[in-house]
Amino acid sequence: MKKISLVSLVLVLCICLGSFCACKQKEGGDMVDIPQGMKLASGENVDYYMFVPESWNVDRSDLYTNAVFSSGDPSSLDHTSISTTVYAVSNDIQCVDDWWNKEDGFLAELSLVYTDISEISEAEATLGGVDGIEYSFTAKLGGVEYCFVITAVWSDFYIYFVTYTSMPQYTDEHADDRAQVIESFTFKD
Q: What's the burial of 174, exposed, middle or buried (CB within 10 Å: 0-12/13-18/19+)?
């Protein structure tokens, strides 16, 4: 009877400890540590790992990774999203600031699509251990205002940027989710 109790106790402890540890998932030939409460959003053909909260819906391709918040309520207007995009840049782009501010840079591209772009705040940021810049602003598309936070880094002639998009009333609600995505983002070895 004591052996059964001891075995039961050991099994219970193993189950409890396992529930507090990060999960592992096979990605290609590698095992990936997935932070607790998150799921792998990025696919095999990209050179980074992006994790999002388990409740978010994931859409991925070879060119980008996207996840959209899911409230479970079909009538909800909360379509907050977060995506990662990678741009190959020309030799004249040597840093994130070049990519963003050049005459034909990303800000100019945004201005072709969005109106009423607010003053843009810039802050130092890190993505996957690489230093970069975080741009925060609001802009309108079709008369509807959205909040954007773009975290961008330059690495080996590529710009990696994670874009968080939300309607103003939902921005603070998902701030912790955005922070977790940025914090857990890693580049593949």
A: buried
